[in-house]
Design a protein that fits this description.
With 787 residues, the protein is mainly β. The chain is built from one helix and 63 strands. The strands form 16 sheets. Strands 35, 37, 39, 40, 44 and 46 form a six-stranded mixed β-sheet that branches. The longest helix has 6 residues. It starts with 15 loop residues before the first strand and ends with a strand. The N terminus is likely disordered.
C-alpha cells in the first residue's frame, strides 16, 4: 500500500558522501534573486524539487544562496494582489557569477509555476520552447490551469490572461483546466505553440463546470496511438456530472464534466470510464460516446443509469481481452430445441457475451458479480440445454439452465463470495432521462411516468406523424398501420439502444403473452440533439406503432411471434455498429407491470454499468502520549489533499496537518498521520478531503481517550473476558486483531452503561476495541494473556 508524504513542506535531505575523511555535499551553490516591479510587497515564491518538497522560499526583494542537487525544479509564484508580479522577476545564477540558469515572472493572476532545469535535470533528451497563451475571456479571475507530465509532475501552471514560454521535452502531457465559479472559462481559450516551428500543438477551453482535462501531444508525444473523439452530452443536470478515464494499468488518461468533447490519442487496450453524479441520481439523460475518427465508428457509449458512481468498459482495438481480466469459457449445449434458445452474459449492464445454442465462447472477466440471462422463444424452457462457465484452468465456476418459461436470469459470482443479485432496469420519464437498455432486460411501467416536459408534439406533426390503418397509404417504412403516438405522452419510458454489431435490429415489447395493455411506441435515430429536436418538432421517427391490440406484444420483427397481431409490429431496421436509437414507450393503458424487452435479429446491443464507491475507514488511536490517525480510500478521482483537523468541543476546529492525496486511483490506498501534541485529554479528529476543483467534504468524526481517564475496558490485561464502561444505548462494539480481522465475541449488558465482552476465538495478543456511539468512534487496545 502507498503511504504518501506527511506534508509537501517536508525538508529535503541533501545526500552526503564520504571522501577520505571529508564530508562533501552533492550539490551546487546557486543564487536566487527575486524582486523589481511596482508591487514587491505582494510577491511570494517557493522552489520545489521533483517530489514536491519545498527547498527554498521567500518574498521580494530576495537575494539568497542555496546549495541544490542537479534536478528538475518548479518555481511556484504567488501574488497577493492577484494581478501578477507587475514587472517583478526571479533569476537563478551560479553563485558569484552572472550565468543565468533560469529567469521568469508571474505575468498575471495570483498564482503560477515555471519549470527550472538545473544542469539538465529536466531530461537528457533536451526540451523545446513552447509558448502557452491563455486569453482572458469574460471572467479571467476565476481561470486556472496546470500542465502535468506523464509521471504526474506539474511542469507549468498559471491563470488568465497568460503568455509565457516554457522549455518542455517531447512527451504526452495533460492540460488541467479549472474554474473557481464552476461555470466554465466564459470564452477564455488556451493555445500551445512550438516556438521554433510556429505549429499549434494544442488548443481548447473549459466549456462549463469547474474542471476538465485535455491531452497534449508534444513532439513525438504519446507513442503509437489512434485518434478518438470522446463526447459527453449535457442531459438535464450537467452541473452534477464528472468522469475519469483510466487504462488497464490504472494510469489516468482524461477527466472532465458535461457537456464536453475531447480528442484523445490512445493505444489499443482495455479502458475504464468512471462516472460520477453529485446528486446521486444518475446522469439524467447525459450520454458518453467514443468515436473512432478514421471511420466514424462509435466503439463504446452509455450513461450512468442511477446513483452517484458507475463504470463502463471501453475496448479499443479489442484490448479488453488482454487487460486485467481473466479468460473464461461459456459452454451452452443444444438440448432438444436449440433453435428457441438465446442468452446474454452481463455484469451490471455491460454485455460480455451473447449467443444461441449450441455455443462455446471465450469471455475475459474480472472478479465481480455477473448475470446469465436465458431466453426461450417457445416459452417452455431450454428443454435439456445447459450453460456452464469455466475458469482459465477448466474448472466449473457455475452452471445452470432455464427450467421453464420464456426467460430467466441467474446471478454468477466470479472470484467473490459476496452476495450477487440480478439487476433491474429502472423507469425513466423524460427524454433527457433516457436510460441505456441492456440486452433482453425487463423494465417496469406504472401510471406515474409523467415527466416534467411535454415533449411529443401534436398528432400529425413532423415528430409525431399520423397514419391510418386500411387507408391504402403506407408509412415511410412500408406498413399500413396506425401511428404514431395518437395520445402523445402517456406514462412514457425513454430508452436508448446502442448498436455494438451491425445487422438487422429486431425487438419485442410484451411478447409471449406478457402484454398487459396498449404499448404504443415511437423510435428516432439518437444523437446529442435528438431530445431538443423532438421538442422542436424537427425530427421524424424511423419506426412507430399505435397498437391495434392490447395483447400479443409489439415491436420490430421479421416474423410475428405466437399470439401476436401483425398490425402491432413493424419491419426490422438495418443498423450499423456505433449507431444509437431512441425509443419512447407509451403506457397508454396506465397499467402497473413489468415489460420484457427482448432483442433479436443479427444486430448486437451494448450497455453500461454502475458500481458503488466509498471512503473505507478512518480511525484514531491513542499510542502513549500521541495519537495515530489512519485512513484508507477505496479509490480516488481528482483528489488534492487531506487536511487533518482537531477539536476539543466539536465546535471549534483547528488545522494540524496536511497529507497529499494520491490524486487518481481505483485501488485501496492507506494513509497515516501522527498528532504528537493532542493538547486535551479527549480530542476529536476529522478529515477535510479536498478535490482539485476546490470542493471539499468532511469525514466522520473520531475521538480518543487517554490513560488519564479511567479506562473504558477493564481488566487490562484480561483472559479475553472484560467489561466496557460508559456505553450509551445503541452503541456498536467491534473487536479486531492486529491485521484488522474482526474477532467473534459475545456481549451482554451488565449494570448501567456497561457491557461484558467475551472473546470466543482469540489467542493471546493485543486487540483493538472499537466503540461507535452517538456518532463518534472511540478505540482502545486490550491485551489478552491467559498464561
Amino acid at each position: 500500500m502507498m503511504r504518501p508524504l506527511r506534508s509537501i513542506t517536508a525538508i529535503v535531505a541533501i545526500a552526503l558522501s564520504i571522501i577520505g575523511n571529508d564530508v562533501v555535499a552533492q550539490c551546487t551553490d546557486y543564487t536566487i534573486t527575486v524582486g523589481g516591479g511596482s508591487a514587491q510587497g505582494q510577491i511570494h515564491w517557493e522552489l520545489q524539487d521533483g517530489f514536491g518538497n519545498i527547498v527554498a522560499s521567500g518574498d521580494a526583494p530576495e537575494d539568497t544562496g542555496e546549495c541544490l542537487p542537479d534536478g528538475c525544479y518548479t518555481m511556484v509564484m504567488y501574488d497577493d494582489g492577484g494581478n501578477g508580479w507587475q514587472g517583478g522577476t526571479y533569476t537563478i545564477t551560479y553563485e558569484n557569477t552572472t550565468t543565468v540558469l533560469a529567469t521568469g515572472t508571474l505575468s498575471a493572476g495570483g498564482y503560477g509555476t515555471e519549470l527550472v532545469d538545473l544542469n539538465g535535470g529536466c531530461g537528457t533528451g533536451g526540451c523545446a520552447d513552447k509558448t502557452i497563451a491563455v486569453t482572458a475571456g469574460a471572467d479571467p479571475l476565476n481561470v486556472y490551469w496546470e500542465i502535468v507530465d506523464q509521471f504526474g509532475f506539474i511542469v507549468a501552471s498559471g491563470s488568465a490572461p497568460e503568455n509565457s514560454t516554457y522549455c518542455l521535452p517531447d512527451g504526452c502531457y495533460t492540460m488541467y483546466l479549472y474554474d473557481f465559479l464552476g461555470d466554465g472559462w466564459n470564452g477564455a481559450e488556451y493555445t500551445i505553440t512550438d516556438v521554433a516551428t510556429g505549429n499549434v500543438e494544442g488548443t481548447g477551453t473549459l466549456l462549463n463546470g469547474g474542471f476538465a482535462s485535455a491531452q497534449l501531444i508534444l513532439g513525438a508525444g504519446c507513442g503509437a496511438c489512434e485518434l478518438f473523439t470522446f463526447d459527453v452530452t449535457a442531459g438535464s443536470a450537467p452541473s452534477d456530472i464528472s468522469w475519469d478515464l483510466y487504462d488497464a494499468n490504472f494510469n489516468f488518461v482524461a477527466t472532465g464534466t458535461a457537456p464536453m468533447s475531447q480528442d484523445l490519442c490512445v493505444p489499443a487496450g482495455c479502458y475504464t470510464l468512471y462516472m460520477y453524479d453529485a446528486m446521486n441520481d444518475g446522469w439524467n439523460g447525459a450520454q458518453f460516446a467514443f468515436t473512432q475518427q478514421s471511420s466514424g465508428l462509435v466503439v463504446s457509449s452509455g450513461t450512468l443509469i442511477s446513483g452517484g458512481f458507475g463504470t463502463a468498459q471501453v475496448s479499443i482495438g479489442g484490448g479488453c481481452g488482454i487487460g486485467t481480466c481473466t479468460d473464461h469459457t461459456l459452454v451452452i449445449t443444444s438440448g432438444s430445441a436449440p433453435a428457441d434458445i438465446s442468452w446474454n452474459f452481463t455484469s451490471m449492464g455491460v454485455n460480455y457475451a451473447s449467443g444461441w445454442a449450441p455455443s462455446t465462447m471465450s469471455v475475459c472477466v474480472d472478479t465481480g458479480c455477473y448475470v446469465m440471462q436465458m431466453y426461450d422463444a417457445a416459452g417452455n424452457g431450454w428443454n435439456g440445454a445447459t450453460w456452464t462457465l469455466l475458469d482459465q484452468f477448466g474448472a466449473v465456476v457455475q452452471s445452470g439452465t432455464l427450467s421453464s418459461g420464456a426467460s430467466g436470469a441467474t446471478a454468477v459470482p466470479v472470484g467473490t463470495t459476496g452476495p450477487c443479485t440480478v439487476p433491474i432496469v429502472v423507469t425513466a420519464s423524460d427524454c433527457p432521462q433516457a436510460v441505456n437498455v441492456c440486452t433482453n432486460l425487463n423494465f417496469t411501467i406504472d401510471p406515474n411516468g409523467w415527466g416534467a416536459i411535454w415533449e411529443i408534439p401534436a398528432l400529425g406533426s413532423t415528430s409525431n406523424p399520423e397514419f391510418y390503418w386500411g387507408d391504402g397509404t403506407n408509412s415511410p417504412w412500408g406498413t399500413d398501420h396506425y401511428g404514431c403516438l395518437m395520445g402523445q405522452e402517456i406514462n412514457t419510458t425513454w430508452m436508448i439502444v446502442n448498436i455494438a454489431v451491425g445487422g438487422s435490429l429486431e425487438f419485442t415489447l410484451g411478447a409471449n403473452g406478457s402484454q398487459a395493455g396498449f404499448y404504443d411506441w415511437t423510435m428516432f435515430p439518437y444523437g446529442t440533439a435528438t431530445c431538443s429536436s423532438i421538442l422542436a418538432n424537427t425530427i421524424s421517427p424511423i419506426r412507430c406503432n399505435w397498437n391495434y391490440a392490447s395483447s400479443g406484444g409489439t415491436g420490430l420483427v421479421s416474423t410475428v411471434p405466437p399470439g401476436g397481431f401483425p398490425e402491432n409490429f413493424e419491419p426490422p431496421l438495418n443498423v450499423l455498429a456505433g449507431e444509437r436509437y431512441l425509443i419512447c414507450f407509451s403506457n397508454w393503458s396506465s397499467v402497473t407491470t413489468v415489460v420484457p424487452l427482448l432483442f433479436g435479429g443479427t444486430a448486437v446491443v451494448s450497455c453500461s454499468s454502475v458500481l458503488p464507491l466509498e471512503l473505507l475507514s478512518f480511525e484514531a488511536l491513542a499510542n502513549g502520549a500521541i495519537v495515530d490517525l489512519n485512513w484508507t480510500t477505496a479509490s480516488e478521482t481528482n483528489s488534492s489533499r487531506f487536511e487533518i483537523e482537531r477539536s476539543s468541543d466539536l465546535n471549534a476546529w483547528e488545522w494540524i496537518g496536511t497529507i497529499q492525496a494520491t490524486g487518481h486511483s481505483d485501488v485501496m490506498v492507506d494513509y497515516d498521520f501522527k498528532d504528537d501534541r493532542p493538547v486535551v485529554d479527549k480530542p476529536y479528529y476529522r478529515l477535510r478531503m479536498l478535490d482539485l476543483d476546490g470542493t471539499s467534504t468532511f469525514s466522520p468524526v473520531r475521538s480518543v481517550r487517554f490513560s488519564a481517564d479511567a479506562p473504558l475496558c477493564y481488566p487490562n490485561p484480561s483472559d479475553g473476558d472484560f467489561v466496557i464502561r460508559q456505553l450509551t444505548e445503541g452503541a456498536n462494539v467491534r473487536v479486531s486483531d492486529a491485521l484488522g480481522h474482526e474477532i467473534a465475541a459475545s456481549m451482554a449488558f451488565s449494570g448501567t452503561n456497561a457491557a461484558r465482552i467475551k472473546l470466543l476465538t482469540a489467542d493471546d495478543g493485543v486487540y483493538t476495541v472499537r466503540i461507535e456511539q452517538e456518532g463518534l468512534v472511540i478505540t482502545e487496545r486490550i491485551l489478552v494473556a491467559r498464561r
